Structures are given as C-alpha cells and as structure tokens.
Amino acid sequence: MAAESSEPATKSPPQILTYYFNDECAWVPAATTYEEALSHAQDAFPELRSVSRDRITYHLNKKARITPPVWWPIIKDVNNCGNVDVRLRKEPEVAAPPEYVNTIEPSGPSNDEMRSRPPKAKSWRWFTGKCCS
Fold it and tell me: How far, in Å, CA of 12 to CA of 15, rounded?
C-alpha cells in the first residue's frame, strides 16, 4: 500500500490559453505578465495592432475582467487551453474645445487700416538708408 500524502496536489499553470475576440479564437501561450498577454493578443488578432493597448481588456467566464495587477494570480489557476475573452473598451469621447467669445474691443486701427496708410516720412528714410535727424 502506498502512503497517502497530506499535501494537496499542486496544479501546474496552463501552457496555452484560448483567446476569443469578435467571433474568432486563437490559441496563445499563457503569458506571465499583462504586457506579454497584450502582445499575444495583438499577434493573434491583427486588427488589434492599431488599437491602443490600454483599450484591450481580458475577461473570464464572459463576466469578470482581469486587471493588470492580478493577471498571473488569476491565469495560473485557469485550466490548460482555458477561455479568455478579449474585448475593447470604448474610445474616450473627446469633447469639443470651448468656443470663446471675443469680449475685448480693439483699441487701435485694424490691420486693413494700417495697410492702407502710407508710411511716415521718418520711417521711410530709415528704409532708404538715409540718416534720420
């Protein structure tokens, strides 16, 4: 008779995960870091390559989102070839810049008025190289 061990059997972490994105699936290596997982998703689904990495999220059981700090503690307990949903966060809406109303009245002649005036004689001499007195 073999002696029974009082220690529970240790489960080895998965080697492969199944990523699902937009009705497609791909087997990818189980990443130990969130950044590595992002790279695997962008390699497996080319349409994600042009997406900002902070918009890519992971979910288990179609509900629970896996955040970066707990990626490995969660993933290491998933079965080999376990299912991970890859989703995209909505792009943040960019608010239109505020429209400013000009409340300051110009205090001098307009640009058009300045262009239509002939130069003063003193400044003209400066441009011709003559000495001003």
Answer: 9
Strand positions, DSSP E, the chain: 16-21, 24-29, 56-60, 64-66, 82-88
Kindly provide the residue ranges of all beta strands, DSSP E only, lying in 61-110, ordered along the sequence: 64-66, 82-88
**10 Å Cβ neighbour count for 66?**
20
For 31-54, the pLDDT digits (tens) are 999 999 999 999 999 999 999 999
Q: Taking a C-beta distance cutoff of 8 angstroms, is the pair 84, 60 a contact?
A: yes
Predicted confidence (pLDDT) at residue 119 exceeds the cutoff of 70: no
CA distances from 64 to 33, 60, 71, 74 (A): 18, 5, 12, 11
Residue 125 sits at φ, ψ, to 5 deg, of -60, -35
> What are the structure tokens assigned to 83, written together?
């299912």
Half-sphere exposure of residue 122: CA atoms within 13 angstroms, side-chain side: 2
pTM, two decimals, is 0.61
Average pLDDT value for the chain: 82
